[in-house]
Design goal:
This protein is an alpha/beta fold. 45% of the residues lie in helices and 12% in strands.
């Protein structure tokens, strides 16, 4: 893919003749795949909270397939909880956007039409609550990232001191958090004797359905014991496992895709060919025929969730922190170094004994496919992007495996180096002395700890391990402390590239 932006025609986004929209669909080149249904006949059945790139590359694509099969009452209303960016990009396009699937063979462009409208919750909270309370809404799905659940990742419980939770309890009609919106709408449906919707979390949380059920019920209980009991009895929270790599869309991506379309698309999505969605089949309010679009419906998604979190997400995070420190901008670039390929493979191999998979699951083949996907040079998945919100991600991706390996009497050196990479990263200064833009809910707290401890592994590692909201009691385990201190010392002494290489030699 060329980076020569001078070769890309310029289109004025204010010129409606050159903006992707319903009216301009006939102007698209014949090679561009378009919605295979009449969008004017679609009615909404799903409200999605957190309509970011991941949702639009995955669940919205599945619904687009099902609409083409005749499931016309399952369109999506998207909602951003705070930022108007997605709304501002998609509303002038009638909700249309391009899905660009990139591989070594080239790029396949497809227009997705399943998103009917996009709301900004912060602008009209009551409007979104009304959408959720509407009897036509039978599924409310979520991709709000780990931090959006306002919980303590180590315990999975609601963080009652979270500023958004404190606000939402005091102002139930104008919530800020996704949890506040869910409970406000369910309370309204209960009063109106309207059947509840199904809550479908699609975030990378272990037992995501059980986690959001616990958080929602705990929050509801702080409002009303009877409301909490009703939710426990009537609302279902199926767990899911979603797998597709979705890099951040860049300005160059927008320009190249707009050039391919012959018109502006303000917010296209870039992704890989691979896609997987496994869902527990518990939808008393109804659902579309997910299986017809390739979704795997199961009775228990837990083994598949653990497989993804501990193989894909864990190795992804390890590559992100250590790769960033080594100077690699993307995961694919990191994978050009055989030392990091071998390290990612070892992260997966060390996680395998902690997994209890259904008979016939080939973990070796799955791991090999992950290494291939990470090496897809057509995807520019930035290490910095994956490194975001590490305090929320570490418990599920790395620490759970470390706990299980310690319980089994197995060494944790591999994962300790990944955790040390995170510790080195959150100090806010890279190996060349340059500032790191650390994006994390605990960024300020972590920076203060790093400043007090200084770049000394024997002080920094124990200080960060003492952050109980991340490490819980694991941070007190002497085996954990010893392994992480040793790994961090090696990282400071040798740098990421040599630390990974030395680790392999050991």
């Amino acid at each position: 893919m060329s980076s020569d932006t001078a070769k890309i025609p310029f289109f004025n986004p204010k010129d409606g003749n050159f903006r992707l929209s319903n009216a301009n669909l006939p102007r698209l080149p014949g090679r561009i795949r378009q919605p295979a249904y009449d969008r004017s006949l679609i009615s909404p059945g799903i409200v999605h909270l957190g309509i970011g790139a991941f949702h639009r590359a995955h669940q919205a694509v599945v619904i687009d397939d099902l609409l083409a099969g005749g499931a016309m009452d399952w369109g999506i209303i998207g909602a951003s909880l705070r930022s108007p960016a997605t709304r501002d990009a998609l509303v002038p396009q009638d909700g249309l956007y391009t899905l660009a699937v990139r591989s070594g063979a080239g790029t396949d462009h497809r227009i997705i039409g399943s998103v009917l409208a996009v709301d900004v919750a912060a602008e009209k909270p009551g409007h979104l609550i009304a959408r959720l309370a509407n009897p036509a809404t039978r599924i409310v799905s979520l991709t709000i990232t780990e931090k959006g659940y306002c919980h303590t990742p180590q315990t999975g419980d609601l963080d009652e001191r979270h500023p958004d939770i404190v606000h939402d309890l005091q102002n139930p009609g104008t919530p800020r958090s996704a949890i506040g919106y869910l409970v406000a709408a369910l309370a309204r449906r209960r009063i109106a004797s309207t059947a509840p919707f199904t809550v479908l979390s699609c975030d990378n949380l272990s037992a995501n359905g059980q986690t959001v059920e616990r958080i929602v019920t705990q929050f509801a209980g702080l409002r009303s014991r009877n409301l909490a009991k009703w939710i426990e009895a009537e609302v279902t929270f199926p767990s899911t496992m979603v797998d597709r790599i979705v890099p951040e869309t860049t300005d160059l991506d927008r320009a190249e895709i707009s050039s391919a379309l012959g018109m502006i698309d303000a917010w296209p999505i870039i992704t890989e060919p691979f896609t997987q969605w496994i869902v527990e089949d518990r939808f008393p309010a109804g659902r579309p025929d997910f299986a017809a679009a390739g979704v795997q419906l199961v009775s228990d998604v837990t083994p598949f969730e653990h497989m993804k979190l501990r193989l894909l997400n864990a190795s992804h995070s390890a590559l992100a922190y250590l790769g960033y420190l080594a100077g690699f901008e993307t995961i694919a670039a990191t994978m050009t170094d055989h030392r990091f390929v071998a390290f990612a493979r070892q992260v997966m191999q060390d996680a395998a004994p902690t997994l209890a998979m259904p008979e016939g699951t080939d973990l070796a083949a799955y791991s090999a496919s992950l290494l291939q996907r990470f090496s897809n040079s057509a995807l520019h998945h930035r290490t910095w992007q994956i490194a975001m919100d590490g305090s929320q991600k570490l418990p599920q991706r790395l620490l759970a495996t470390m706990q299980d390996r310690l319980r089994l009497g197995l060494p944790i050196d591999t994962h300790a180096l990944a955790v040390a990479g995170w510790m080195r990263y959150v100090t806010g200064t890279d190996e060349r002395g340059r500032a790191i833009d650390v994006r994390d809910p605990l960024a300020r707290e972590l920076a203060d700890i790093a400043e007090r401890a200084g770049p000394v592994a024997e002080r920094l590692a124990p200080a960060l391990l003492a952050v109980s909201s991340i490490f819980g009691t694991l941070g007190n385990d002497p085996r954990m402390r010893s392994a992480v201190i040793e790994a961090l010392a090696k990282l400071y002494a040798l740098g990421a590239r040599q630390a990974v290489q030395t680790f392999q030699a050991a």
